[in-house]
C-alpha cells in the first residue's frame, strides 16, 4: 500500500496546504492513505462532486462534530455522468446546487473519501435524504491509476429547474477541491455562470 506522508516536503503548494489543514483529522499513524484498492472492511467510499469537495466543509463542519474521521481522500472520476446545478436549495436563496445526471461520454470529477459507514448517516442529514432532496446511489468511480472502485454518491431528486445556477458562495466550495481536480475541469467550474 502506498502512503502519502504529510510530514514530507512537497513541491506542490496546494497539496502542502491541504495536508496542513487535514493533519488533525488523519489517522493516528499520521499518514493519509493514497491507495484505496484494499481498504479496511469497515470503510465505505463516498464520492463527493459538489460542496463536500471542500474538505473543511466535509470534515470540520459535518463529519468531525459527529466523531467520524476521514481515513483517506483521493481524486476520482465518474464516467457517463455530467454535473448540473438543477436542484434549487432554499439555504442558497433558491440558487442551484450540484447534481449528477446520466450522460454518455461525459465525466464528473470529484473526491473519493474513505470513512466509516456512520459518515453516511451524518451526510444523509445534510443532503436532505429524509425530505427527498437527495438519495444515495451506488456508482463506480475510477482513481488516477485506473482502479475502479464502488462508491456511494448523493443524487438530487425532482423537482428540477433547468435554468438554475449556483450561488457564488456555493460554487466556492467546489473550487476548494482544486487540489483534487484536473486543471481543465477546475477552470470549467471557475467559469460557471452564477445566480448572483
From TrEMBL:
Q: Where is the active site?
A: 127 (proton acceptor)
- State if Cell membrane is listed as a keyword: no
UniProt cross-references to InterPro entries, sorted A to Z:
G-Glutamylcylcotransferase, GGCT-like, GGCT-like_sf
Is Membrane a UniProt keyword of this protein?
A: no
Annotated binding of substrate, by residue: 46-51, 170
Keyword annotations for this protein, in alphabetical order, are: Lyase, Transferase
Q: Which SUPFAM superfamilies match?
A: Gamma-glutamyl cyclotransferase-like
A Pfam family of the record is AIG2_2
Extract the GO molecular function terms from the UniProt entry.
gamma-glutamylcyclotransferase activity; transferase activity
Q: Which PANTHER family match?
A: GAMMA-GLUTAMYLCYCLOTRANSFERASE
Protein known as: Gamma-glutamylcyclotransferase
What species was this sequence derived from? Litorivicinus lipolyticus
Amino acid at each position: 500500500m502506498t502512503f502519502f506522508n504529510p510530514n514530507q516536503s512537497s513541491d506542490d503548494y496546494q497539496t502542502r496546504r491541504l495536508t496542513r489543514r487535514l493533519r488533525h483529522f488523519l489517522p493516528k499513524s499520521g499518514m493519509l492513505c493514497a491507495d484505496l484498492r484494499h481498504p479496511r472492511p469497515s470503510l465505505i467510499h463516498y464520492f463527493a462532486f459538489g460542496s463536500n469537495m471542500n474538505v473543511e466543509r466535509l470534515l470540520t463542519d459535518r463529519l468531525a462534530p459527529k466523531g467520524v474521521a476521514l481515513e483517506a481522500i483521493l481524486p476520482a472520476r465518474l464516467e457517463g455522468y455530467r454535473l448540473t446545478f438543477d436542484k434549487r436549495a432554499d439555504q442558497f436563496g433558491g440558487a442551484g446546487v450540484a447534481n449528477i445526471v446520466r450522460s454518455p461520454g461525459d465525466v464528473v470529477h470529484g473526491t473519493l473519501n474513505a470513512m466509516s459507514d456512520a459518515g453516511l448517516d451524518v451526510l444523509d442529514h445534510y443532503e436532505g435524504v429524509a425530505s427527498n432532496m437527495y438519495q444515495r446511489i451506488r456508482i463506480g468511480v475510477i482513481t488516477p491509476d485506473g482502479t475502479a472502485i464502488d462508491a456511494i454518491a448523493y443524487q438530487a431528486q425532482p423537482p428540477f429547474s433547468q435554468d438554475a445556477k449556483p450561488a457564488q458562495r456555493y460554487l466556492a466550495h467546489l473550487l476548494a477541491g482544486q487540489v483534487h481536480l484536473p486543471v481543465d475541469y477546475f477552470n470549467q467550474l471557475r467559469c460557471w455562470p452564477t445566480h448572483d
